[in-house]
Design a protein that fits this description.
By secondary structure, this protein is of the alpha+beta class. Helices cover 26% and strands 35% of the residues. The strands form 4 sheets. Strands 1, 2, 3, 4, 5, 6, 7 and 8 form an 8-stranded antiparallel β-sheet that branches. Strands 14, 15, 16, 18, 19, 20 and 24 form a 7-stranded mixed β-sheet that branches. The protein is flat and about 70 Å long. The N terminus and C terminus are likely disordered. The protein binds S-adenosylmethionine. The site of S-adenosylmethionine (SAM) has 22 residues, from α3, α4, α7, β10 and α10. Its main location: cytoplasm. Keywords: Chromatin regulator, Cytoplasm, Methyltransferase, Nucleus, S-adenosyl-L-methionine, Transcription, Transcription regulation, Transferase. Its EC number is 2.1.1.319. It holds the Pfam family PRMT_C.
């Protein structure tokens, strides 16, 4: 082909009349003749598909050498021989935003057509497992389900973190967590004896070793991070158990196992249950490996929520932005950034262990049944809220925690991260509203907690709480007070102070014993609902 200046196994090139990066204050690039190169690199499992734009001459005023991930790129026609290529980003696949762009001028319309057709062909072919390169080279596979939805910089950091013994130790030393897993497995030996188990995200291999202790016939310990090598070492050092465990390094989305599992065991919970998006991997492992009547340990998770009142926390959050109210900071007026800093502080969920007496209403909960939930249902979680205030006062936001149930055949055991229970490494989280709401005893509080997953393995949180106005204006028609905020679950504010003694109003003191009991009664109901038939 005349327009193609190069074509080897994994590469395709086009000469361009001119190319320039769309103006960016940091990397201006003037238009000058160039090359567009499609290339594919890496192993079949880790295929990198790139579209590279280069100026032909390195003498160009501001030379361009820009590589785009082909999967995240879009190309738009502006004219017969003019196009623009944009690098696309998205929020849970919903809102598309473009971060970089390249203006392309082709030498003629035919070359433009050829470029567009190759662009679409490569994008389409590589989306299909076992597709062929447009030039005929076989490709066994491209990005796995995990890599398609998670940004590689995020997963690199994530697996680097879990690859360190230090962080595995932190989890192992969480006595509530590890002790509850141990009890749940050992008390339900009958579920494990002679069974095939898959440990989803095995880390150090501790849960695989528990399953082997409980009599599992064989355990497949799947771990994606470098921790897999340490797990292998630990398992080899416990030969009586280790002879029934196989460590497999890889993602549960990608690896193949020689047989189906009777039980999945995993610890996929993050802050607010869903942070890290590992529940999705647990569900994918269920669909890939679990036999039809297999069991999942844990079986069900619940997110608990209740409005709270904590004047001390609110003032602390608001005061953090006071720094930006200085008008003469080394001669500089900082106040233009005060509003942004204030908003920024309230976009951080607060992680700490709080005194349950700050709750001003009995909690409600949202159930995620790991045995039934579809992976896609975890991309967006929408929870309507309705509470009745047990006390009067100012609501400063929504307090959240979670628990999970091990629905064993012998014993049903809950692992809880509730306030007032022994503290775990997850603590609890609080979403603080920048504008508190006033309520009277018995008043209804409504709202919504909306979680939207993003490609950095976490969620954007949208919280709204509303209550009817009280006082004289309420009598004249009940105007609604509403307060909302947007928070980033991936960027919490770790506030590890000791639980504080809160001075309670008389109302609060009388209402407290009632607050948690309603939740326990609801838990009882759920247990009955989940009892084996
Ligand atoms: C919270 S840790 C739990 C480790 C261990 N199971 C325990 O209970 O101590 C989660 C582990 O799952 C691994 N992991 C996360 N996503 C994974 C995936 N998609 N495939 C395989 N391993 C994964 C992480 O690297 C990490 O070691």
């Amino acid at each position: 082909m005349e327009d193609s200046v190069g074509q080897n196994r994994n590469c395709r090139e086009f000469i361009l009349a001119s190319v320039a990066e769309l103006s960016s204050p940091f990397s201006p690039s003037a238009a000058s003749p160039g090359i567009a190169r499609f290339s594919c690199d890496g192993s079949a499992a880790e295929l990198e598909l790139e579209l590279q734009f280069q100026h032909e001459s390195h003498q160009a005023p501001a030379p361009l050498n820009l590589k785009l991930d082909l999967q995240a790129a879009q190309v738009f026609k502006l004219g017969p021989a003019q196009s623009v290529c944009m690098l696309e980003g998205s929020d849970a696949g919903k809102q598309t935003s473009y971060s970089r762009g390249v203006a392309i001028q082709f030498r003629n319309e035919e070359e433009s057509e050829a470029f567009h057709s190759v662009f679409q062909q490569w994008k389409k072919k590589f989306n299909v497992q076992g597709g062929n390169l447009p030039n005929g080279t076989d490709v066994i596979t491209r990005k796995s389900k995990f890599d398609q939805k998670i940004e590689s910089s995020s997963s690199k950091m994530y697996f680097h973190y879990y690859g360190q013994l230090l962080h595995q130790q932190n989890m192992l030393q969480d006595y509530v967590r590890t002790g509850t897993y141990y009890a749940a497995v050992m008390e339900n030996r009958t579920d494990f004896v002679g069974r095939v188990v898959v440990d989803v995200g095995a880390g150090s291999g501790i849960l695989s070793l528990f399953a082997a202790q409980a009599g599992a016939k064989h355990v497949y310990a799947v771990e994606a991070s470098g921790m897999a090598e340490y797990a292998q070492k630990l398992i080899a050092g416990n030969p009586l158990l280790g002879q029934r465990i196989t460590v497999i390094k890889g993602k549960v989305e990608d690896v193949e196992l020689p047989e189906k599992a009777d039980i999945l065991i995993s610890e996929p919970m993050g802050t607010l249950l869903v942070n890290e998006r590992m529940l999705e991997s647990y569900v994918i492992a269920r669909d890939r490996f679990l036999s039809p009547n297999g069991k999942m340990f844990p079986t069900v998770g619940r997110i608990h929520m209740a409005p709270f009142s904590d004047e001390y926390l609110f003032v602390e959050m608001a005061n953090k932005a006071l720094f930006w109210q200085q008008q003469n900071f080394y001669g500089v007026d900082l106040t233009p950034l005060h509003g942004t800093a204030f908003q920024g502080n309230f976009s951080q969920p607060v992680v700490d262990a709080f005194d349950p007496r700050v709750l001003i209403s009995p909690p409600t909960f949202h159930v995620i049944d790991f045995t039934k939930v579809k992976e896609e249902e975890l991309y967006e979680i929408n929870i309507p809220l309705r509470f009745r205030s047990a006390v009067g006062g100012r609501i400063h936001g929504l307090a959240c925690w979670f628990d999970v149930l091990f629905n064993g055949s012998t014993v049903q055991r809950w692992l809880t991260t509730a306030p007032g229970s022994p503290t775990t490494h997850w603590y609890q989280i609080r979403c603080v509203l920048p504008q508190p709401i006033y309520v009277m005893v018995g008043q209804e509080i409504t709202g919504r907690l909306h979680l939207i997953a993003h490609n950095s393995q976490s969620y954007t949180i949208y919280l709204t709480l509303s209550a009817k106005m009280w006082g004289p204006s309420a009598e004249q028609g009940g105007i609604l007070q509403t307060s909302s905020c947007k928070l980033e679950l991936k960027e919490p504010y770790y506030r590890m102070s000791q639980p504080q003694a809160y001075p309670l109003t008389q109302d609060q003191q009388q209402a407290q014993p009632l607050l948690m009991t309603q939740d326990l009664e609801e838990a009882d109901g759920l247990m009955q609902h989940l009892s084996p038939n």
